Amino acid sequence: MNVTLYPIRLGDRTKIVHGWIILQDGAARGLLTPGEDGEILFALAFDRRIRPEDDIMVFRDLEEAHAWLRRRLRRAPAQGGSEAHA
Fold first, then answer.
1. How many C-beta neighbours within 10 Å does residue 57 have?
2. Please, are residues 83 and 50 in contact by the beta-carbon 8 Å criterion?
3. 22-33 pLDDT tens trace
């Protein structure tokens, strides 16, 4: 199981947001965005295993986010049906 945080830019010509897409085994699992004070914010889950219970997660840095994601994505995917939910 390999979890990668790949830097991305989202937006249009007037507003650009930098962030990271969470990739595991070739699939996108979610998005992270930078906070105003240097923290990392959990933005969006495509995989219910990494959806925070209260939909809010703040990390001190990318290392903390990466460790948390590795722990969560070790969980077995749900049996039957799609595992991706936003």
1. 18
2. no
3. 999 889 999 999
